[in-house]
Amino acid sequence: METKKVAVIGGGAAGFFAAISVKENYPNHQVILFEKTSKVLSKVKVSGGGRCNVTHNCTDISNLCNAYPRGGKKLKSLFYQFSTTDTIDWFETRGVPLKTEKDGRMFPVSNNSQSIIDCLIGEINRLKVTLELGQTIENIQQVKMGWKLKFKDQPSQQFDVIIIATGGSPKLKGFDWLQNLGHNIINPIPSLFTFNMPNESIRELMGLVVENARVKIKNSKIQTQGPLLITHWGMSGPSILKASAFGARVLSEHEYQFEIEVNWIDETNMDLLFDQLLRYSQSNPHKGIGKHKAFMIPNRLWIFLLSKVEIPVEKKWNEIGKKKFRQLITILTQDIYKVSGKTTFKEEFVTCGGIDLNEINLNTMESKKVNNLYFAGEVIDVDAITGGYNFQAAWSGGYVAGKLGG
Which one is the CATH code of 5-190+350-405: 3.50.50.60, 2.30.110.10, 3.30.70.2750, 1.25.40.10? Predict the structure, then answer.
Protein backbone atom coordinates (compact mmCIF):
# COMPACT_ATOMS: atom_id res chain seq x y z
CA MET A 1 0.00 0.00 0.00
CA GLU A 2 1.24 3.47 -0.89
CA THR A 3 2.45 5.45 2.10
CA LYS A 4 1.70 9.16 2.22
CA LYS A 5 2.68 11.99 4.49
CA VAL A 6 -0.39 13.93 5.59
CA ALA A 7 -0.49 17.25 7.48
CA VAL A 8 -3.61 18.17 9.42
CA ILE A 9 -3.58 21.84 10.46
CA GLY A 10 -5.68 22.74 13.49
CA GLY A 11 -6.01 20.96 16.82
CA GLY A 12 -9.75 21.35 17.27
CA ALA A 13 -12.66 18.95 16.81
CA ALA A 14 -12.44 18.79 13.00
CA GLY A 15 -8.65 18.50 12.99
CA PHE A 16 -8.59 15.65 15.50
CA PHE A 17 -11.34 13.79 13.67
CA ALA A 18 -9.58 14.24 10.32
CA ALA A 19 -6.25 12.96 11.68
CA ILE A 20 -7.95 9.96 13.30
CA SER A 21 -9.91 9.22 10.12
CA VAL A 22 -6.75 9.20 7.98
CA LYS A 23 -4.99 6.72 10.28
CA GLU A 24 -8.04 4.47 10.66
CA ASN A 25 -8.43 4.22 6.89
CA TYR A 26 -4.71 4.28 5.97
CA PRO A 27 -2.73 2.86 8.92
CA ASN A 28 0.61 3.16 7.08
CA HIS A 29 0.31 6.88 6.37
CA GLN A 30 2.36 9.30 8.42
CA VAL A 31 -0.01 11.85 9.94
CA ILE A 32 1.14 14.99 11.73
CA LEU A 33 -1.40 17.19 13.51
CA PHE A 34 -0.24 20.80 13.90
CA GLU A 35 -1.65 23.26 16.44
CA LYS A 36 -0.30 26.79 16.72
CA THR A 37 -1.15 27.19 20.43
CA SER A 38 -0.08 25.14 23.41
CA LYS A 39 -3.57 23.65 23.89
CA VAL A 40 -5.80 21.42 21.80
CA LEU A 41 -9.60 21.05 21.73
CA SER A 42 -10.13 24.31 23.62
CA LYS A 43 -13.60 24.82 22.12
CA VAL A 44 -14.60 21.28 23.03
CA LYS A 45 -13.56 22.11 26.59
CA VAL A 46 -15.93 25.08 27.02
CA SER A 47 -18.83 23.88 24.85
CA GLY A 48 -22.16 23.42 26.61
CA GLY A 49 -20.97 25.07 29.78
CA GLY A 50 -18.08 22.62 30.08
CA ARG A 51 -20.23 19.57 29.33
CA CYS A 52 -19.63 19.49 25.53
CA ASN A 53 -22.74 19.44 23.36
CA VAL A 54 -21.37 16.66 21.15
CA THR A 55 -24.21 16.47 18.62
CA HIS A 56 -27.99 16.56 18.27
CA ASN A 57 -30.30 13.56 18.18
CA CYS A 58 -31.80 14.66 14.84
CA THR A 59 -31.56 11.60 12.57
CA ASP A 60 -33.42 12.94 9.53
CA ILE A 61 -30.79 14.35 7.16
CA SER A 62 -33.12 16.94 5.60
CA ASN A 63 -34.13 18.28 9.02
CA LEU A 64 -30.50 18.24 10.08
CA CYS A 65 -29.53 20.41 7.11
CA ASN A 66 -32.15 22.98 8.15
CA ALA A 67 -30.00 23.81 11.18
CA TYR A 68 -27.26 25.30 8.97
CA PRO A 69 -27.88 28.88 7.73
CA ARG A 70 -24.63 28.60 5.77
CA GLY A 71 -24.43 25.15 4.19
CA GLY A 72 -28.00 23.91 4.34
CA LYS A 73 -28.94 21.25 1.80
CA LYS A 74 -25.44 21.37 0.30
CA LEU A 75 -24.32 19.35 3.31
CA LYS A 76 -26.59 16.37 2.59
CA SER A 77 -23.89 14.23 0.99
CA LEU A 78 -21.58 14.94 3.91
CA PHE A 79 -24.13 13.86 6.51
CA TYR A 80 -25.08 10.75 4.55
CA GLN A 81 -21.44 9.68 4.84
CA PHE A 82 -21.17 10.47 8.55
CA SER A 83 -24.42 11.22 10.37
CA THR A 84 -25.41 12.07 13.92
CA THR A 85 -26.02 8.34 14.46
CA ASP A 86 -22.45 7.64 13.33
CA THR A 87 -21.17 10.24 15.80
CA ILE A 88 -23.07 8.60 18.66
CA ASP A 89 -21.79 5.14 17.69
CA TRP A 90 -18.23 6.45 17.28
CA PHE A 91 -17.99 7.80 20.81
CA GLU A 92 -19.98 5.04 22.50
CA THR A 93 -17.88 2.25 20.97
CA ARG A 94 -14.85 4.05 22.40
CA GLY A 95 -16.21 4.10 25.92
CA VAL A 96 -17.98 7.48 25.98
CA PRO A 97 -21.74 6.94 26.34
CA LEU A 98 -23.94 9.90 25.36
CA LYS A 99 -27.33 11.05 26.65
CA THR A 100 -30.11 13.09 25.07
CA GLU A 101 -31.74 16.06 26.79
CA LYS A 102 -35.36 17.09 26.18
CA ASP A 103 -34.40 19.67 23.53
CA GLY A 104 -32.46 17.06 21.52
CA ARG A 105 -28.97 18.17 22.53
CA MET A 106 -26.58 15.33 23.31
CA PHE A 107 -23.86 15.29 25.98
CA PRO A 108 -21.53 12.70 27.48
CA VAL A 109 -23.21 10.87 30.36
CA SER A 110 -20.33 12.13 32.51
CA ASN A 111 -21.54 15.74 31.96
CA ASN A 112 -17.88 16.60 31.51
CA SER A 113 -16.23 17.71 28.24
CA GLN A 114 -13.01 16.13 29.47
CA SER A 115 -14.53 12.74 28.58
CA ILE A 116 -14.61 13.79 24.91
CA ILE A 117 -11.13 15.32 25.06
CA ASP A 118 -9.63 12.22 26.70
CA CYS A 119 -11.27 10.00 24.08
CA LEU A 120 -9.91 12.02 21.13
CA ILE A 121 -6.40 12.30 22.59
CA GLY A 122 -6.48 8.59 23.41
CA GLU A 123 -7.32 7.79 19.80
CA ILE A 124 -4.51 9.82 18.24
CA ASN A 125 -2.08 8.22 20.71
CA ARG A 126 -3.37 4.73 19.90
CA LEU A 127 -3.14 5.36 16.16
CA LYS A 128 0.28 7.00 16.47
CA VAL A 129 -0.69 10.39 15.07
CA THR A 130 2.13 12.87 15.76
CA LEU A 131 0.89 15.99 17.58
CA GLU A 132 2.99 19.14 17.19
CA LEU A 133 2.05 22.06 19.47
CA GLY A 134 3.16 25.69 19.16
CA GLN A 135 3.62 25.41 15.39
CA THR A 136 2.66 28.53 13.45
CA ILE A 137 2.36 27.95 9.71
CA GLU A 138 3.14 31.08 7.75
CA ASN A 139 2.67 29.80 4.23
CA ILE A 140 1.38 26.84 2.22
CA GLN A 141 2.96 26.34 -1.17
CA GLN A 142 2.12 23.81 -3.83
CA VAL A 143 5.23 22.10 -5.16
CA LYS A 144 5.82 19.42 -7.79
CA MET A 145 5.63 16.51 -5.37
CA GLY A 146 2.81 17.87 -3.15
CA TRP A 147 2.81 20.62 -0.59
CA LYS A 148 5.41 22.62 1.28
CA LEU A 149 4.60 24.08 4.69
CA LYS A 150 6.65 27.04 5.88
CA PHE A 151 6.78 27.34 9.68
CA LYS A 152 7.67 30.25 11.89
CA ASP A 153 11.11 29.57 13.45
CA GLN A 154 11.16 26.00 12.10
CA PRO A 155 12.43 24.33 8.90
CA SER A 156 9.89 23.85 6.09
CA GLN A 157 8.33 20.41 5.59
CA GLN A 158 6.85 18.64 2.58
CA PHE A 159 3.61 16.66 2.53
CA ASP A 160 1.56 14.73 0.01
CA VAL A 161 -1.80 15.87 1.39
CA ILE A 162 -2.90 18.85 3.48
CA ILE A 163 -6.12 18.99 5.53
CA ILE A 164 -6.92 22.45 6.87
CA ALA A 165 -9.13 22.54 9.98
CA THR A 166 -8.05 25.77 11.65
CA GLY A 167 -11.54 26.93 12.68
CA GLY A 168 -13.15 30.30 12.18
CA SER A 169 -11.52 33.69 12.49
CA PRO A 170 -13.19 36.89 13.70
CA LYS A 171 -11.38 38.91 11.01
CA LEU A 172 -10.57 38.43 7.35
CA LYS A 173 -6.88 38.91 8.21
CA GLY A 174 -6.99 35.53 9.93
CA PHE A 175 -7.25 33.92 6.49
CA ASP A 176 -4.30 35.80 4.95
CA TRP A 177 -2.06 32.73 5.10
CA LEU A 178 -4.56 30.88 2.87
CA GLN A 179 -5.02 33.61 0.27
CA ASN A 180 -2.22 32.41 -2.02
CA LEU A 181 -4.08 29.11 -2.53
CA GLY A 182 -6.45 30.98 -4.82
CA HIS A 183 -9.63 30.49 -2.82
CA ASN A 184 -12.35 33.07 -2.35
CA ILE A 185 -12.75 33.92 1.35
CA ILE A 186 -16.23 34.93 2.50
CA ASN A 187 -15.80 37.79 4.97
CA PRO A 188 -16.20 36.38 8.51
CA ILE A 189 -18.75 37.89 10.86
CA PRO A 190 -20.24 36.70 14.19
CA SER A 191 -23.08 34.20 14.02
CA LEU A 192 -24.39 32.98 17.39
CA PHE A 193 -24.90 36.00 19.64
CA THR A 194 -27.40 37.49 22.06
CA PHE A 195 -29.26 40.78 21.65
CA ASN A 196 -28.38 43.86 23.70
CA MET A 197 -31.28 46.13 24.68
CA PRO A 198 -29.77 48.89 26.83
CA ASN A 199 -32.87 51.11 26.64
CA GLU A 200 -35.53 48.46 27.25
CA SER A 201 -37.03 48.07 30.73
CA ILE A 202 -37.74 44.37 30.15
CA ARG A 203 -34.18 43.78 31.34
CA GLU A 204 -35.58 44.16 34.86
CA LEU A 205 -37.09 40.68 34.39
CA MET A 206 -33.62 39.10 34.01
CA GLY A 207 -33.58 35.35 34.54
CA LEU A 208 -37.13 34.89 33.28
CA VAL A 209 -37.69 32.20 30.63
CA VAL A 210 -40.62 31.90 28.19
CA GLU A 211 -40.67 28.32 26.94
CA ASN A 212 -42.07 28.88 23.44
CA ALA A 213 -41.85 32.39 22.02
CA ARG A 214 -41.82 33.48 18.40
CA VAL A 215 -39.22 36.05 17.38
CA LYS A 216 -39.33 38.06 14.16
CA ILE A 217 -36.61 40.43 13.00
CA LYS A 218 -38.48 43.45 11.71
CA ASN A 219 -38.12 44.31 7.99
CA SER A 220 -36.83 40.82 7.20
CA LYS A 221 -38.15 37.33 6.53
CA ILE A 222 -36.38 35.90 9.57
CA GLN A 223 -38.68 34.26 12.11
CA THR A 224 -37.74 31.75 14.79
CA GLN A 225 -39.42 29.87 17.58
CA GLY A 226 -38.32 28.41 20.90
CA PRO A 227 -37.35 29.28 24.47
CA LEU A 228 -36.48 32.94 25.12
CA LEU A 229 -34.39 34.10 28.08
CA ILE A 230 -34.44 37.65 29.41
CA THR A 231 -31.01 38.76 30.65
CA HIS A 232 -29.61 41.80 32.41
CA TRP A 233 -28.39 43.07 29.00
CA GLY A 234 -31.34 42.06 26.82
CA MET A 235 -32.46 38.72 25.39
CA SER A 236 -30.92 35.30 24.80
CA GLY A 237 -32.08 31.69 24.56
CA PRO A 238 -32.52 29.37 21.55
CA SER A 239 -35.07 31.56 19.72
CA ILE A 240 -32.75 34.57 19.86
CA LEU A 241 -29.59 32.63 19.01
CA LYS A 242 -31.38 31.03 16.05
CA ALA A 243 -32.43 34.49 14.83
CA SER A 244 -28.84 35.73 15.16
CA ALA A 245 -27.53 32.79 13.12
CA PHE A 246 -30.03 33.07 10.26
CA GLY A 247 -29.83 36.86 10.36
CA ALA A 248 -26.05 37.12 10.75
CA ARG A 249 -25.39 38.87 7.42
CA VAL A 250 -28.44 41.13 7.56
CA LEU A 251 -27.81 42.19 11.17
CA SER A 252 -24.15 42.91 10.44
CA GLU A 253 -25.19 45.17 7.55
CA HIS A 254 -27.43 47.07 9.97
CA GLU A 255 -24.54 47.35 12.45
CA TYR A 256 -26.65 45.48 15.01
CA GLN A 257 -29.22 48.27 15.26
CA PHE A 258 -32.67 46.80 14.57
CA GLU A 259 -36.05 45.89 16.05
CA ILE A 260 -37.57 42.54 16.90
CA GLU A 261 -41.19 41.54 17.33
CA VAL A 262 -41.92 38.98 20.05
CA ASN A 263 -44.99 36.77 20.23
CA TRP A 264 -45.02 35.62 23.85
CA ILE A 265 -47.86 33.09 23.54
CA ASP A 266 -47.18 31.37 20.18
CA GLU A 267 -50.60 32.21 18.76
CA THR A 268 -51.47 34.50 15.85
CA ASN A 269 -55.26 34.20 15.51
CA MET A 270 -56.42 37.53 16.96
CA ASP A 271 -60.14 36.64 16.94
CA LEU A 272 -59.44 33.39 18.79
CA LEU A 273 -57.38 35.23 21.40
CA PHE A 274 -60.03 37.90 21.86
CA ASP A 275 -62.68 35.21 22.45
CA GLN A 276 -60.35 33.50 24.93
CA LEU A 277 -59.89 36.75 26.89
CA LEU A 278 -63.64 37.43 26.82
CA ARG A 279 -64.46 33.94 28.12
CA TYR A 280 -61.82 34.20 30.85
CA SER A 281 -63.22 37.58 31.89
CA GLN A 282 -66.77 36.19 32.05
CA SER A 283 -65.60 33.20 34.08
CA ASN A 284 -63.54 35.30 36.51
CA PRO A 285 -65.35 38.67 36.63
CA HIS A 286 -64.44 39.65 40.19
CA LYS A 287 -60.85 38.39 40.23
CA GLY A 288 -57.89 40.76 40.01
CA ILE A 289 -56.27 40.79 36.56
CA GLY A 290 -52.79 41.05 38.11
CA LYS A 291 -53.09 37.76 40.01
CA HIS A 292 -55.23 35.81 37.57
CA LYS A 293 -53.72 35.60 34.09
CA ALA A 294 -55.47 34.28 31.00
CA PHE A 295 -52.36 32.79 29.34
CA MET A 296 -49.57 30.43 30.39
CA ILE A 297 -46.75 32.92 30.66
CA PRO A 298 -44.59 33.77 33.70
CA ASN A 299 -46.32 35.97 36.29
CA ARG A 300 -43.67 38.69 36.17
CA LEU A 301 -43.99 38.94 32.40
CA TRP A 302 -47.80 39.15 32.66
CA ILE A 303 -47.53 42.07 35.11
CA PHE A 304 -44.93 43.75 32.89
CA LEU A 305 -47.14 43.49 29.79
CA LEU A 306 -50.17 44.79 31.67
CA SER A 307 -48.17 47.87 32.62
CA LYS A 308 -47.14 48.39 28.97
CA VAL A 309 -50.80 48.75 27.98
CA GLU A 310 -51.60 50.70 31.15
CA ILE A 311 -53.90 48.16 32.78
CA PRO A 312 -53.64 48.53 36.60
CA VAL A 313 -52.96 45.17 38.26
CA GLU A 314 -55.62 45.79 40.92
CA LYS A 315 -58.39 46.06 38.32
CA LYS A 316 -61.00 43.30 38.21
CA TRP A 317 -61.48 41.36 34.98
CA ASN A 318 -65.00 42.73 34.55
CA GLU A 319 -63.59 46.26 34.69
CA ILE A 320 -61.47 45.80 31.56
CA GLY A 321 -63.08 46.97 28.34
CA LYS A 322 -62.84 45.42 24.88
CA LYS A 323 -60.45 48.16 23.71
CA LYS A 324 -57.94 47.19 26.40
CA PHE A 325 -58.42 43.52 25.54
CA ARG A 326 -57.33 44.25 21.98
CA GLN A 327 -54.32 46.25 23.18
CA LEU A 328 -53.37 43.37 25.46
CA ILE A 329 -53.63 40.88 22.60
CA THR A 330 -51.40 43.10 20.45
CA ILE A 331 -48.70 43.35 23.13
CA LEU A 332 -48.86 39.58 23.74
CA THR A 333 -48.38 38.77 20.07
CA GLN A 334 -46.56 41.75 18.54
CA ASP A 335 -44.37 43.15 21.30
CA ILE A 336 -41.63 45.38 19.81
CA TYR A 337 -38.10 45.82 21.24
CA LYS A 338 -35.17 47.85 19.98
CA VAL A 339 -31.82 46.04 19.78
CA SER A 340 -28.59 48.03 20.01
CA GLY A 341 -25.60 45.72 19.77
CA LYS A 342 -24.74 42.10 20.45
CA THR A 343 -22.96 39.95 23.02
CA THR A 344 -21.02 36.74 22.33
CA PHE A 345 -22.91 33.67 23.50
CA LYS A 346 -20.97 32.44 26.56
CA GLU A 347 -17.44 31.38 25.59
CA GLU A 348 -18.58 29.76 22.38
CA PHE A 349 -17.39 31.91 19.49
CA VAL A 350 -19.02 31.02 16.18
CA THR A 351 -18.51 32.85 12.90
CA CYS A 352 -20.04 32.58 9.49
CA GLY A 353 -17.65 33.09 6.62
CA GLY A 354 -14.47 31.37 5.51
CA ILE A 355 -13.56 29.32 2.43
CA ASP A 356 -16.31 29.67 -0.17
CA LEU A 357 -18.44 26.49 -0.26
CA ASN A 358 -18.66 26.71 -4.05
CA GLU A 359 -14.92 26.02 -4.20
CA ILE A 360 -15.08 22.81 -2.14
CA ASN A 361 -16.33 19.40 -3.27
CA LEU A 362 -18.64 18.62 -0.35
CA ASN A 363 -18.68 14.92 -1.29
CA THR A 364 -14.97 14.69 -0.46
CA MET A 365 -14.10 18.02 1.25
CA GLU A 366 -11.35 18.49 -1.34
CA SER A 367 -10.61 21.85 -2.93
CA LYS A 368 -11.97 22.30 -6.43
CA LYS A 369 -9.02 24.59 -7.15
CA VAL A 370 -6.12 22.28 -6.38
CA ASN A 371 -5.65 18.57 -5.72
CA ASN A 372 -4.73 17.00 -2.38
CA LEU A 373 -5.95 20.00 -0.36
CA TYR A 374 -8.90 19.39 1.95
CA PHE A 375 -10.92 21.49 4.40
CA ALA A 376 -13.00 20.67 7.48
CA GLY A 377 -14.75 22.55 10.26
CA GLU A 378 -15.40 26.25 10.67
CA VAL A 379 -12.60 27.31 8.32
CA ILE A 380 -15.21 26.86 5.57
CA ASP A 381 -18.37 28.97 5.25
CA VAL A 382 -20.55 26.61 7.28
CA ASP A 383 -22.15 27.36 10.62
CA ALA A 384 -25.21 26.24 12.53
CA ILE A 385 -27.68 27.19 15.19
CA THR A 386 -26.94 26.14 18.77
CA GLY A 387 -27.68 22.55 19.77
CA GLY A 388 -24.65 20.44 18.84
CA TYR A 389 -24.91 21.08 15.11
CA ASN A 390 -21.60 22.94 14.75
CA PHE A 391 -19.73 20.02 16.27
CA GLN A 392 -21.61 17.59 14.03
CA ALA A 393 -20.38 19.50 10.96
CA ALA A 394 -16.85 19.27 12.39
CA TRP A 395 -17.07 15.50 13.01
CA SER A 396 -18.61 14.83 9.58
CA GLY A 397 -16.24 17.10 7.68
CA GLY A 398 -13.19 15.78 9.51
CA TYR A 399 -14.20 12.17 8.97
CA VAL A 400 -14.82 12.57 5.22
CA ALA A 401 -11.71 14.71 4.63
CA GLY A 402 -9.58 12.11 6.41
CA LYS A 403 -11.17 9.10 4.73
CA LEU A 404 -10.94 10.52 1.19
CA GLY A 405 -7.86 12.66 1.68
CA GLY A 406 -5.55 9.89 2.75
Answer: 3.50.50.60
